[in-house]
Amino acid sequence: MEIKREKYLNDLVNRMHNGMIKVITGIRRCGKSYLLFKIFKKYLLEQGVPESHMIEIELDQRKNRKYRDPDVILDYIESMIKDYEQYYIMLDEVQMLDEFEEVLNSLLHIQNADIYVTGSNSKFLSKDVITEFRGRGDEVHIYPLTFKEFMEAFDGDIYHGWAEYVVYGWLPLTVTMKTEEQKIHYLTNLFQETYLKDIIERHQIEKTQELGDLTNILASAVGSLTNPPKIEATFKSSIQSNISLNTIRQYIEYLEDAFIISKANRYNVKGRKYIGTPLKYYFEDVGLRNARLGFRQIEETHLMENIIYNELRKRGYSVDVGVVEKRKNRADGKTERIRLEIDFVANLGSRRYYIQSAFGMPTEEKRLQEKASLVQVKDSFKKIIVVKDVVNVTRDEEGITTMSVYDFLLKENSLEL
């Protein structure tokens, strides 16, 4: 069954003929090539674009190795443009092309060409390319499957789908695999032999063991506050390693640039300012995170938090960890300030939502605990608690909405329910 990926198709359609290079970025195996060469190409054909006016080159294919030479590929593309009608140039894994910035700049001068490229590394694409083109590069970042997209291809109900999703993640190929053994082998090898190997080769890393250990530490700390000094302390106490703070910061940046992890900064809601470290790191795909830990730490509470974070980002929101302060009376009669955490503060333009991930609220005490940070926020923006349980969407007397994670993930307008 084809997964439509309508959001990303619309992102490309809305950018057609805008005079900019459409740069499709994302983690390896998330579906960038499929989006460009299958879904978008199908759309162009349906619009009446002849296939002769689509110039497609997959640069990671050995048969196209010659096109990694900048002069060869430019000569080839120019030879394919035979009239003044619109042409669509689609280049896959463009970071494999030598001097690709110069090549893409040259292609921008072809008046009747609309250009689309994919790549797997943000160092080469979302940062350097966008800077190089000075406003003429337009990034579309593609994520692995949302739960809604996952369920389009999953043969089963939402509860069994969730059980698969939270363990094996949302890379498209895992949905097609029939056995757990296949999925485990695929994800484990993919992380080690593709993602980490890419980083090691690209940055010429010699301390490969430390990179692997750091990845494990971050995987274990999903949903927990951390920072490089804390990680350094863990290296010294648990691994007996003297890795430096600078190396830790650098390796974290490499993992972010490869789209393996992303960070959520802490934001003081009342003070309206960022706090700095510690912060939280989440994985682009929890299946990869679980594979890195040998599928031994499947803490559904933390993984649900990771899934909610990713869903918000896929919907276009910038996402921070919220902090609010509250005065508390002490036993000695004095008061003290304590900090409470809001899992996510999601912003998109003028819209803002405060969201708490609560695996369950079986007791009144637990319910009050989950609400404690939200009730301290006195502005008019919506406050939501997402729970694992199947519940009706409700709103209490304090204006806090509670909904099931299934409603949150499967309904496109869930934030407005």
Key attributes of the depicted protein:
417 residues, alpha/beta, 3 domains, five-stranded parallel beta sheet, Trna Endonuclease, Chain: A, domain 1, Rossmann fold, 42% helix
Structural write-up:
It holds the Pfam family DUF4143. Residues 20-151 form the AAA domain. The protein has 417 residues and is an alpha/beta fold. The protein has 3 domains: 6-141, Rossmann fold (3-Layer(aba) Sandwich), CATH 3.40.50; 147-261 and 282-297, no CATH class; 318-416, Trna Endonuclease, Chain: A, domain 1 (3-Layer(aba) Sandwich). Helix content is 42%, strand content 23%. It is built from 16 helices and 13 strands. It has helices at 6-13, 32-46, 70-80, 100-107, 123-133, 147-153, 158-168, 172-176, 180-203, 208-220, 228-239, 245-257, 286-292, 300-314, 364-371, 405-410, and strands at 21-25, 54-58, 87-92, 113-119, 137-141, 261-268, 273-283, 318-329, 335-348, 351-358, 382-387, 394-395, 400-404. The strands form 2 sheets. It has an 8-stranded mixed beta sheet with strand order 7-6-8-9-10-11-13-12. Strands 2-3-4-1-5 form a 5-stranded parallel beta sheet, with helices on both faces. Strand 12 (394-395) and strand 13 form a beta hairpin. Helix 9 (180-203) packs across helix 13 (286-292). The longest helix has 24 residues, at 180-203. It is globular. The two termini are 30 Å apart. The mean pLDDT is 92.
